[in-house]
Amino acid sequence: MDTFPRCLLQHAQTRPDSPAVRQKSRGIWQTLTWRQLADEVAALAAGLAARGLQRGDTVALLGENRPRLIAAMAAVQWLGGVIVPLFADTPADEIAGPLQGAGVAYVFAEDQEQVDKLLQLLPQCPSLRGIFYDDDRGMRHYALDRLQSYDSLLAQGRQALPTQRAAIDAELTRGHGQDAAALFFTSGTTGPARGVLHSHAALIDRARAVAQLDGLGADDVTMAYLPPAWIGQHAFAYAVPMVTGACVCCPESSETMLQDMREMGPSLFLAPPRVLEALLTQVTIRINDTGGFKQRLYTHFLGVAARVGEGVLAGQPVGMGDRLAYALGQMLIYGPLRDVLGMSRVRVAYSAGEAVGPDLLRFYRSIGINLKQLYGSTETGLFVTLQRDGQVQPAAVGAAAPGVELGFSAQREVLVRSPGLFLGYHGGTAAAQPATDAQGWFHTGDAGWLGEDGQLHVIDRLQDLGTLADGTPFAPKPLENKLKFSPYINEAVAFGKGQDKVCVFVDIDPEAVGNWADKQGLSYTGLADLASLDPVYDLIAGVIAQANAELAADPATARLQVHRFLLLHKRLEADDGELTRMRKLRRDLIAQRFASLVTALFDGSSQGRVDAKVRYEDGRTGIVSADVKIHDAKTFAPVALKKAA
Fold first, then answer.
1. Cys-Cys crosslink for 273: which of 299, 330, 356, 375, Cβ 3.0 to 4.6 Å?
2. What CA–CA distance (Å, rounded) separates 155 from 358?
3. Which pLDDT does position 145 carry in this prediction?
4. What is the pLDDT of residues 324-380, one digit of tens each?
5. Cα of 139 vs its chain's centroid, Å
6. How many CA atoms, within 13 angstroms, populate the side-chain half-sphere of residue 224?
7. How much is the pLDDT for 563?
8. What mean pLDDT comes out for the span 298-311?
């Protein structure tokens, strides 16, 4: 079981009638067993071989999660091909680079929308020999030799399979764990996205490591709802199920995700921090829409959970009174809340992709969800450290996973040696960059340190670290996570490197703030109008004041309090280039695009003028101009200084 197709065949032999993949379509869950999935993959491999797919060819995947996407990945790898998952919401002009850089030979596209993007790019992508589409709606009049439906390809493969079985099985036998399996593109937070090439062995090793640590097995159920282009989604909706035999469930749509989760009751759940923040915001909005008694009940038992919930989850001694109070909260609040979130059966949940705020981690753990943090990157196969049960520290990211070595440079950069490391970068100038240094260490670009208990503490990206003008160490991410714990703040961007104080941009959550504004009887015409209202500024000022009070209580962070802030007149968007497709901040671009606002924050101006580029839904771009108000934030004297006085 050193390649994914071999894992698939092993499950088809040992658990042929167990569910492998489920998908909800038109309100009905449909199931593929391991035997059925293996049969479809074999036929698809025969069809691809007939179309000319050869070992080493790259095949892109463009669409949302569905069983046919999983079958396509396994079929390509059966023949020795390399899969290249791409973000389905990416405009055509952004897809061209990855297609060209990876030399993509074939593409599995979900529907007409994705096919139209590809047809537009054909003149720029001479290596592209075939496009296979799944959903045939709107495709009736498309006539092109390189275009074929998934159903037609599958039928062609089934017809050819009896005579081609020996040939495709020979390709399967030729496969080796060190062969390239997948090419993922980095998020591009600090520069152009780079193609990261992973072997079967590296991805399978990471899946086995997490399965070993948390006892994952064939009885587990996981959800495939995140972008397939993210390595985290690939790990938990493809690699882990292929290794353990777990069942993957594909929701009908993003709109039905929570309801579909409640129906399937996953035992294994993965979410980047942005998803956890969005879920908490939805809960807060629903609670705010209830009556006063329910709000007071919710607030009271959240206080109980914050006090003893993590101890109960970790099996630590808890007083009888607190245990009884928590049990009552379990019946009235925590249990129903987990059910609303679709997590009533979750045995273990992971957060990965970027640092999760300690407050957010504590909240989920306090209500009985065993949420743990994974730390790593695309190059490291998603994770190199993992928080163990009973040893979760909100400020740490866990100890090294099996087989992983951690080291540190003189600048405190985290260095990694791991069997899950990538083969190297693919294409362009990135291909010339070695994966590791002469000693075999991969340089993560993150700054951190190792605690006495062996747990890794990650501070921030090295390039984002700095000091205030007085020499106080400054890292923006921890501060931003503290602010984003509020349901009213969608994104926060902190500035302070080389400055005499810290200031922030706030991207408000339009749904949560809009709900609050409606209850206050405020009128507004859109996001820009909402973000300009003085009561909304007062609302966010209260959130920042609370964060400042917490910062002031710790001598190490007291000088990092936010002094000035503004509310952006537009959302920070991936389509506008301000966020990656996984919604990570592109700091340099934001600072450059909103340079006039950054200047106004620090020069004492009461407002700033900005002209922001936006991309509309139809693909057109334009400029949105606005005068943005700037307010001072309430700050507090450091607690240590108060005591000294």
1. 356
2. 52
3. 87
4. 999 999 999 999 999 999 999 999 999 999 999 999 999 999 999 999 999 999 999
5. 32
6. 30
7. 98
8. 94
> Could you tell me the two tokens for 640?
């240590």
Give the model confidence (pLDDT) of 414-471 as tens digits.
999 999 999 999 876 677 688 899 999 999 999 999 999 999 999 999 999 999 999 9
Neighbours of 86 (CB within 10 A): 26
561 touches 635 (CB < 8 A):
yes
CA distances in angstroms from 468 to 237, 249, 345, 373, 578, listed in the order given: 43, 48, 46, 29, 25
**Which of these CATH numbers, 3.30.300.30, 3.40.50.2000, 3.30.460.80, 3.40.630.30, describes 465-644?**
3.30.300.30
384-392 contacts: CB < 8 A, separation 24 or more?
Answer: 384/416, 384/418, 384/420, 385/455, 385/456, 386/209, 386/210, 386/213, 387/455, 388/213, 389/214, 389/314, 390/314, 390/315, 391/453, 391/455, 392/310, 392/314, 392/361, 392/365
Rg (CA), the chain: 25
SS3 category, 182: strand
- Strands of 456-461's sheet in order across: 405-408, 413-417, 442-450, 456-461
510-519 and 273-288 helices, crossing angle to 10°: 10
Cβ-based neighbours of 5, under 8 Å, separated by 6 or more:
41, 74, 77, 78, 172, 175
Q: Residue 200, Cβ neighbours under 10 Å: how many?
A: 25
**Look-up: residue for tokens 């280039």?**
577
CATH of domain 4-200+215-249: 3.40.50.12780
Task: Report whether 401 contacts 384 (CB < 8 A).
Answer: yes
What local confidence, expressed as pLDDT, does residue 143 receive? 84
pLDDT mean over 58-81 = 97
Question: What pLDDT, on the 0 to 100 scale, is given for residue 144?
Answer: 87
Q: What CA–CA distance (Å, rounded) separates 99 from 85?
A: 11
CA pair distance 245, 242, nearest whole angstrom: 6
Long-range contacts of residues 533-537, Cβ cutoff 8 Å, at least 24 apart: 536/508, 536/567, 537/567, 537/629, 537/631
Q: What is the CATH number of domain 271-344+346-461?
A: 3.40.50.12780
CB 389 within 8 A of CB 370: yes
Full DSSP string of 579-629: B-TT--B-HHHHHHHTHHHHHHHHTT-SEEEEEEEEE-TTS-EEEEEEEEE
In the chain, list all ranges with CATH 3.40.50.12780.
4-200+215-249, 271-344+346-461
Pairing of strands 621-632, 562-567: antiparallel
Q: Is the pTM of this model over 0.85?
A: yes
The pLDDT score that the predictor gives to residue 641 is: 52
- Compute the distance between CA of residue 536 and CA of residue 556 in angstroms, rounded to an integer: 30
Beta strands 147-149 and 195-199: pairing type? Answer: unpaired
Rounded mean pLDDT of 132-144?
A: 91
Of residues 528, 48, 69, 38, the one with CA closest to residue 245: 38
